[in-house]
Amino acid sequence: MAMRGDAAGPAVALPTDTGPEMGAAASRGLDPARARVRPLPEPRPLTQHGPARVVALCNQKGGVGKTTSTINLGASLVEYGRKVLLVDLDPQGALSVGLGVPAQNLDRTIYNALMERRTSLKDVLVHTDVPGLDLIPSNIDLSAAEVQLVSEVAREQTLLRVLADVRADYDYVLIDCQPSLGLLTVNALTAAQGVIIPLECEFFSLRGVALLVDTIEKVKERLNPDLEISGILATMYDTRTVHCREVFSRVVEAFGDTVFQTVIQRTVRFPETTVAGQPITTWAPTSSGASAYRDLAKEVLAL
Ligand SMILES: Nc1ncnc2c1ncn2[C@@H]1O[C@H](COP(=O)(O)OP(=O)(O)OP(=O)(O)O)[C@@H](O)[C@H]1O
Ligand SMILES: [Mg+2]
């Protein structure tokens, strides 16, 4: 099992619900997330940029915070002086929209870079309003790629191949995956060195994680020996509910130190940022959501 801080390997018994014996501290009203918090090192300034570390944000469950985390982790890494490229690998194009890029009107997107040998990622790259944060946009055109790639030579390595053109210019490439484990997601896992798994703190959140971990293992064995799970990120955390605290305790029991100590609280500020087309770090820079993603960036930089 390719988990950070767990050299001993797999044997993760994944719980699928919260039992009465679990999360005892959580049900006594203690906040298990707060109990894990340790001081984070200040990131070191960089004197030069690249080559990028590629990280995929992946979970086949929908609506768990993949896109929100891609945008806000990216924007936070930029605040620490890193150059960051965000890759929208979801035909829904939510990452592009969330950064104020009207991708549905674009003629050329990641689809063209993946499918046409004469189009490079540099041809489709967009600078966002946040200096140092660039975007490879996507729109519904990408949905055809899943089918068309099947007949390509080395179909799983297509994204890895096209990323070679831009890796030298960035410190991080973050890939926002669609909610599926199809060929596009396998492309992301093949191109990445790290995977961040956003996990919503609710009852069914752990269902399907075993399948995701299994897919990551297969990609590591067959296509990408460098791949490891950078961390599990608890999202939409509501300290007020016992249920949420219990789910979090279970996630920590299953994954130990692979769970980031930073948890992302549930707050209406995140849906607001989507409407604003901005990261929370610029839309509400002093909000707790912004500071949580800055903490996550510190953790990612310390890995
Ligand atoms: N911490 C949070 N608190 C409250 N709402 C949130 C939070 N994070 C994300 N959201 C909202 O939840 C919805 C789903 O989030 P997001 O789009 O990031 O998930 P996703 O995993 O990318 O979804 P999909 O699987 O559809 O791509 C969005 O409306 C977003 O604004
Ligand atoms: Mg998304």
Based on the model shown, name its key terms:
Rossmann fold; 38% helix; 13% strand; binds adenosine-5'-triphosphate; binds magnesium ion
- Identify every distinct bound molecule in the structure, by name, code or SMILES: adenosine-5'-triphosphate, magnesium ion
Determine the N-to-C terminus distance: 17 Å
Q: Output the structural class.
A: alpha/beta
What is the number of E strands? Answer: 7
**Overall 3D shape:** globular
What features would you describe in this structure?
This protein has about 300 residues and is an alpha/beta fold. It has a single domain (about 45-300), classed as P-loop containing nucleotide triphosphate hydrolases (Rossmann fold, 3-Layer(aba) Sandwich), CATH 3.40.50.300. The protein contains 14 helices and seven strands. It has helices spanning about 25, 30-35, 65-80, 95-100, 110-115, 120-125, 140-150, 160-165, 185-190, 210-220, 240-255, 270-275, 280-285, 290-300; strands at about 55, 85-90, 125, 135, 170-175, 195-200, 230-235. It binds adenosine-5'-triphosphate and magnesium ion (MG). Adenosine-5'-triphosphate (ATP) binds near residues 64, 66, 68, 266 and 270.
